[in-house]
Amino acid sequence: MTNTTKSSAQEQLEIMKINGEKFLKITDNDAMRPFFMSIVSDSNHWMFISSNGGITAGRRNAEFTLFPYYTDDKITESAHYTGSKTIFKVLSGDQVHYWEPFSNRFVEQYQITRNLYKNIYGDKLIFEEINHSLNLKFTYRWSTSDRFGFIKESQLHNLNDSNHLPLVYQR
Asked: How far apart are CA 129 and CA 131, in angstroms?
């Protein structure tokens, strides 16, 4: 199913465990109007993020931003400039496929599902895109650490593999 044929009736909420931690999952979140979230921190970090990936973050206050401190509509509009950017060149037999998760540039080309996960403490947020056409799943997670600041972890999973082990893991 492509992004353009989804209806709001398909959106689902469920509570699930990821690595022993409770998360709220929003299925097909891209069928919804973009919404704004915060990631809480036990130190002086702050992060506001749109459900489409646009982000602003900093330390202490707006004077110490890493990304521009704008209103939520401007942050949502700037997702392709301030959000996560990943582009894959996938070789399948003798064919080459390009896939940019969470972008609308290739959405008509592939069957995709996009989901959001936020843990119950509000300090971790996971974006997930499943490319059913290529049998790949890409996730990235935002969290904070007093020692390391903002942490982004990314994983690419081959869904053809019976163990679904990550192909690439970067931190």
From this structure: 6
Distance CA 45, CA 61 (A): 9
- Spatial distance between the Cα atoms of 94 and 19, rounded to a whole number of angstroms: 37
Tokens of 109: 């080309």
Locate 129 and state its tokens: 């895109």
Kindly report the backbone phi and psi dihedral angles of residue 122, in degrees, each rounded to the nearest multiple of 5, phi listed first: 80, 15
Q: How far apart are CA 63 and CA 14, in angstroms?
A: 37
Beta bridge partners of 117: 25, 126
* Contacting residues for 139 by C-beta, under 8 A, at least 6 apart: 126, 127, 128, 129, 154, 155, 157
Write down the pTM of the prediction.
Answer: 0.78
84-142 pLDDT tens trace: 788 899 988 889 999 999 888 877 899 999 999 999 998 899 999 999 999 999 999 98
Query: What CA–CA distance (Å, rounded) separates 83 from 116?
Result: 15
Q: Are 67 and 48 in contact (CB under 8 A)?
A: no
